[in-house]
Amino acid sequence: MALPRSLQDKLALPVIGAPMFIVSNPDLVIAQCTSGVVGSFPALNARPKELLDEWLSRITDALQRYRAAHPTARVAPFAVNQIIHQSNDRLDHDIELCVKYRAPLIITSLRAPGEVVARIHQYGGVVFHDVTNVRHAEKALEAGVDGLILVCAGAGGHAGTLSPLALVGEVRRFFDGPIILSGAITTGQGIAAAQALGADLAYMGTRFIATREANADARYKDMIVNCSAKDIIYSPFFSGVHGNYLKPSIAAAGLDPENLPTADKSAMNFGSTRVKAWRDIWGAGQGVGNIHDVLPVAELVARLKHEYQVALDALASARTAYA
């Protein structure tokens, strides 16, 4: 289970900050990377598409300057999320810019990335792909991806339904490469648990929404701090794909989260209000109950590192006790 060379000795914590629609921006990515965890963003967050060039330039330059000023620091590479789907009419444009800036890591979603992998590999980039089941994992590996992101039950946004206890073990039967685990991971203990299951890295999204640098409405951040697992609903209603959302945001949009209509559409009209996922209906994972404050990214990562080390020490003591 070796990490790609671009990640080796670059991480202060075995974490990738998940790319989040609207929320992930250059400020968040730079803060994550300079704190020693991979920062990522969806290419589609840069709108209009010409803005992506500016974002990639800014992130690349900021990380180069930080590395020069802090030669002993572990500065993580950044990642760009690309939606591999026919509805993404700017995919070729966005991939060309990733090639131009030699984006170290590309995270692909929805469909097996096919020819995208070859284009990224040409300059030495790495491709990780989101999957929710074994079939999708096998198809991604056939396409040549370097690692798999297992999006398990409890993850924020578009999540799968399988327990990580099941999916990690099944994937490890046929894949010994990098596995990144997603699903309600909000603490350092959760990061250690992901590795104990057989994953190499943890994939964390919801916890980074409640940070100073995240491009999220203050009400969104407060809602995450004040909610718990009981406030999460899993529904396909808002985007056509099952996802985990905060019930209070649904209620604030004038809908009853316990009695949602059955139609699966990306946007619905209710009177004069147009309701959309991510803009009006806010995604979050089941781990929200472990989030109690909004912090700067650097402070959050420092806390996670402490919690992670405490968890590792506890596991070491347990092994000794049962040796």
Word description of this protein:
The protein has 323 residues and is of the alpha/beta class. Helix content is 37%, strand content 16%. The protein has helices at 26-34, 51-69, 91-100, 115-122, 134-142, 164-172, 188-197, 206-209, 218-226, 247-252, 297-321; strands spanning 15-17, 39-42, 78-83, 105-109, 126-131, 147-151, 179-182, 201-204, 232-235, 243-246, 267-270, 273-276. The strands form three sheets. Strands 1-8-7-6-5-4-3-2 form an eight-stranded parallel β-sheet. A two-stranded antiparallel ribbon has the order 9-10. Helix 1 (26-34) runs parallel beside helix 2 (51-69) and helix 7 (188-197) crosses helix 11. The longest helix is centred in the C-terminal third of the chain and has 25 residues, at 297-321. The chain starts with 14 loop residues before the first strand and ends with a helix. The model is unreliable at 264-273 (pLDDT under 50).
What is the topology?
Elements: E1 15-17, H1 26-34, E2 39-42, H2 51-69, E3 78-83, H3 91-100, E4 105-109, H4 115-122, E5 126-131, H5 134-142, E6 147-151, H6 164-172, E7 179-182, H7 188-197, E8 201-204, H8 206-209, H9 218-226, E9 232-235, E10 243-246, H10 247-252, E11 267-270, E12 273-276, H11 297-321
Parallel strand pairs: 1-8, 2-3, 3-4, 4-5, 5-6, 6-7, 7-8
Antiparallel strand pairs: 9-10, 11-12
Helix pairs in contact: 1-2, 7-11
